[in-house]
């Protein structure tokens, strides 16, 4: 396997194991990747370095889905809901929740976080501009809703994914400007409330 | 304090403490209730008996809100959404989640669970019959949605409650038949999937 493919395989193995247990050992991750623990430590000097690589990869996947949605200018609402579905199907919010409290934010992760926020805001502006999205919905709302949907877990991966799609459909219908019977009450989460959960 | 008021005070103290930490000790609960541990053990022979009493009380509160909503036959949709708001404001789904895995289901709790299911089904039939509720929404959907909303927690009780109301408003708009852009995909959770989470 070429080195970059091996890196990818390690990240995928780490995602899989960390989604089951965010406190998994390097040994468990090495086993899932089909390599020795020593080999894993040659790539990542310690578990924190690996966790940061996994978190960075999670951000990059998120931004890639958001960028793809932004390129669909014909139907911003469809692009937006498709983006939410991809992000959920890939388990990105679940991994974010799992890594909370485990991963230490370094400069690279802070930069990726800013990029993810900016790209989501661009996507929301497009959906809002098309008139389809409730105007008061913010990026912080989307963060909370994705995390809540990501937490749905009935013990079986296939069924859990199907249920996440069921409730995403309901939430997306609730996000539409046409559906609003009233303005959403209270302010959305403040940035500090969202960031506080990383502490 | 008359004995029944003291019982109520103990249950309220237990709710408060268990919502913070479902594995709280009898000592922590006694302290919150402003009584000695020995006094608490005179009322509840062991922690499991107290947990079962708290769970039973939680079911009874839920059913009382549902019955109140059923008595409003003028506007079944308004009664239904008000019911959801009361249940969330009172923290009933949060306590259910907190007690999961901690409380052992005895016959009394099984009977109360059946009563809660039946009452919710009657409420859903009324909301469906009025044409306001998406016809495919089941009691299991409501269980999942209430638990998801109940889990919203930004570390501050007042802000968390305000955010739960914000997203409940969005979810209620999504639950309306008028809002449906398509049928909700996939089946709702099976009973075994919901019950399995109590194991």
UniProtKB/TrEMBL annotation, chains A, B:
Write down the DNA-binding region ranges. Answer: 25-44
**Is the Transcription regulation keyword given for this protein?**
yes
Keywords from the named record: DNA-binding, Transcription, Transcription regulation
What single Pfam family name could you report for this chain, choosing any that match? TetR_C_43
Which residue range or ranges hold the HTH tetR-type domain? 4-62
Q: Does the keyword Glycoprotein apply?
A: no
Q: Which PANTHER family match?
A: HTH-TYPE TRANSCRIPTIONAL REGULATOR BETI, HTH-TYPE TRANSCRIPTIONAL REGULATOR RUTR
Q: What is this protein called?
A: TetR family transcriptional regulator
Q: Which organism is it from?
A: Nocardioides luteus
């Amino acid at each position: 396997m070429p080195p970059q493919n091996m890196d990818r395989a390690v990240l995928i193995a780490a995602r899989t194991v960390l989604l089951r247990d965010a406190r998994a050992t390097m040994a468990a991750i090495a086993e899932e990747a089909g390599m020795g623990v020593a080999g894993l430590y040659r790539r990542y000097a310690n578990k924190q370095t690996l966790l940061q690589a996994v978190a960075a990869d999670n951000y990059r996947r998120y931004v890639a889905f958001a960028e793809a949605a932004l390129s669909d200018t014909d139907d911003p609402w469809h692009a937006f809901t498709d983006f939410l579905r991809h992000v959920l199907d890939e388990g990105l919010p679940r991994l974010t929740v799992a890594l909370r409290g485990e991963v230490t934010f370094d400069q690279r992760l802070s930069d990726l976080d800013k990029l993810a926020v900016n790209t989501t805001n661009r996507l929301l502006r497009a959906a809002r501009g098309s008139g389809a999205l409730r105007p008061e919905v913010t990026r912080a709302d989307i963060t909370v809703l994705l995390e809540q949907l990501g937490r749905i877990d009935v013990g079986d991966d296939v069924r859990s994914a199907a249920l996440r799609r069921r409730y995403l459909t309901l939430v997306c219908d609730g996000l539409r400007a046409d559906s609003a019977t009233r303005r959403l009450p209270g302010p959305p989460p403040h940035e500090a409330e969202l960031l506080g959960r990383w502490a």
